[in-house]
Amino acid sequence: MLAAAIAYLAFAIFVAGTVWRVVAWARVPVPFPIVLTCGQQKSLPGIRAAWLENPWTRAGVACRLALEVVTFRSLLRNSRAQLLPGPRFVYRGDRSLWIGALLFHGCLFWVFVGHLRFVLEPARLGPANRFVDAGLLAALAFLFLRRVLDSRLRYLTLAADYLPLALIATVAGSGVLMRWWAHTDVAAVKRFALGLATFHPVAPAGVTALFYIHLFAASLLGASIPFTKLAHMAGVFFSPTRNLPADSRARRHANPQLAPARVHTYAEWEDEFRDKMRAAGLPLGRQ
């Protein structure tokens, strides 16, 4: 029953950590609109605005955020600065990260949906095929080599940034091995998963050591999500560069944290120094 205890503990840490991060993000004040965009902002009636690239309504923001989550549109416009002989400093489009991220997240989502057959009865969803497994491993290799071979990324990468990649690689590698080579008892795994889902855990019988490696690595990965960069799966919805309408030209934004400005008008200033100004021969607005 140690496997069930570790799975429950990892799930509890994941839920509590995610709630903690979400509450912390939600409490951060955002006094000014700091939207990142590449389209024309809404301003004067005669200027055509980009409703999707630079939305000024909540509906437009929802559409842009949905496309960002599903298709990674910001990565599609990724550019790379290069210093060429001459010297010439140029920007070139770099869509390799967009392709790798799209392949990785798509395959990972397919694998996750395929795993639902272990907790659904009857199972209506099929497992991932060889192409999905190969795509996931290839995308993982690309993301790892990109951090290792690129000198600038290698300089910016911390040691903790390799932990999620290592855990995902362990989970994916052990899963592929169990599916295609070192087969395990799928019926026993399903009984164990159904027991976890219904809070009546049973000890998995007839499974190999690879299953425990797979389970423990997945549990550690889930527990670490709120405390690593993998928390971007929830953080993207709280990013002020994505979730705010770009209406700073369409309407005035007043910072609620600033105290009302104490002004001293010219008329008040003239009333205060009227006698001295008249004695000095300065012109007065009112006599």
Quick take:
The protein is mainly alpha-helical and 287 residues long. Helices cover 53% and strands 4% of the residues.
Annotation keywords:
2 strands, mainly alpha, 4% strand, 12 helices, 53% helix, Fumarate Reductase Cytochrome B subunit, 287 residues, elongated
Protein described:
There is one protein chain. This protein is mainly α and 287 residues long. It has twelve helices and two strands. Strands 1-2 form a two-stranded antiparallel ribbon.
Query: Strand tally, please?
Result: 2
Here the CATH topology equals Fumarate Reductase Cytochrome B subunit
Top-tier CATH class: Mainly Alpha
* SSE run: HHHEEHHHHHHHHH
Give the overall pLDDT as a whole number.
87
Shape category: elongated
* Radius of gyration, in angstroms, nearest whole number: 29 Å
Report, as a whole number of angstroms, the end-to-end distance.
94 Å
Query: In the residues, how many domains can be counted?
Result: 1
CATH superfamily: Transmembrane di-heme cytochromes, Chain C
For the biggest sheet, the summary is: 2 strands, antiparallel
Estimate percent helicity: 40-55%
Q: Supply the number of helical segments.
A: 12
Unreliable stretches (pLDDT < 50, length at least 5) are: none
CATH architecture: Up-down Bundle
For the biggest β-sheet, the strand order reads 1-2
Query: Which structural class should the secondary elements be placed in?
Result: mainly alpha
